[in-house]
Specification:
binds copper (II) ion, Beta-galactosidase, Chain A, domain 5, single chain, 23 strands, 6-stranded antiparallel sheet
Amino acid sequence: MRTRRLLAALALGLPSVLLLGCVAGAVSEEPTADPETPAVECEEGEPLSQAFDNGSAWTMCWQVQEDVGLLLTDIGFAPTGDDTIPILESLAIAQLEVPYDDGERLTNDITEAGFGSGRMQTLTETECVGERIATAVPNVGDGTYGKSPVREVLCSEVVDDGLGYRSSDGALVADRRQSWQLGSISKVGWYEYVAQYAFGSDGTISPSLGATGDISPLDFTDEEHGWPVGEGDHDHAASHSHNAVWRAHWALGATGDLRAEQYDATETGEHGSESPILDGTLTEIAHPTTLEWENRRWWRVLSPSVENADGHPISYEIDIDGTDSFAFSEDQHDHGDEAGYDVAFTNADECQLFATHNGRECGAGVLDFVADSAEDPLRDIVSWVAVGFHHVVRDEDQSPMDTHWQGFTLLPRDLTAQRVGIPSGREDVNGIPEDSIWRQGEDDE
Ligand SMILES: [Cu+2]
């Protein structure tokens, strides 16, 4: 059904107000005449697609892997009236470290346990009010031994995501934002993790991790390292971090020929007639590296050879404000003070899959990957996004624990020359308006 809706949107041949001239050449798959044939072919399993009320649509492939759990690949977005633009080659969680503040425990939940296999939970209508999609999930490991029963493990749900836009300058235009949420639940120890990927009708991608289940009954400690959750000043549940890293391999219509940039707006110390002057700068990230977040800083991955109708390179911004930054433990110790980062960029390498405990000869983790390729040009770009959450347990966490969330946003920046889904009457708004005083200034010259 979802496929049909997408193809219907594509087949409508909506007026091409967003002429992504160059993008058209980068489209990998043309929609076919057969309405049952999806717009993307998957190496494994059936593709997923979802169209929105504004006419935009997402397509992708998915599979369940023993370690990372939900792996999304061939992720493409079709802005309203346009062909599908390949956005990401792949997206998955790449590690989840849980170090306890008393120093007595650290788990690596992806590489030691894994979100797939028997840890991935069959969903019921309480956890998933949308469509529950089944696939064969091995009971043990990768399925080489034992059985792989077909179970409903993927939740696909379109939700109302609040006000998308409103403008009453002239005739009122307003619309809701919709979000297509894909998620699975994996039980690792006492925690139950929700791996969720939300795809917006505006082109945003929001990977997030929810944690519920129960606090560890083995990890109680003293008052310096925990919080009393029993009666009185007793039963201090150990504080701990949930340190997640996601791996995103970029496509942007030109896999292997991309660039990365860091944006900073810095205070100059000077004032204009009314406000402090800030200088905005873009710095190319020329080589694999690790970077830390600061106020007014973001990163983007762009496609120099693919432009939108305004002639701007299409790109996606990585937004991670408000995270509890963290330094990696264990096998990244030998990198010393450099062990912390919020975002890292490397070139894609199929051997480099996990942020830590990668367990392969190409390196133990991101810091090794970066150190070993620090002189290489950055082209086939993988972003490693590290988002920490320091969990000081509350009385409300038992029992079960209130779900707590952490994540980040990938935001389209100049993917289209104007907004996705332009309301009637706003088609011509692009740059300085005709009646602006800036235009009048031009006329006087
Ligand atoms: Cu926790």
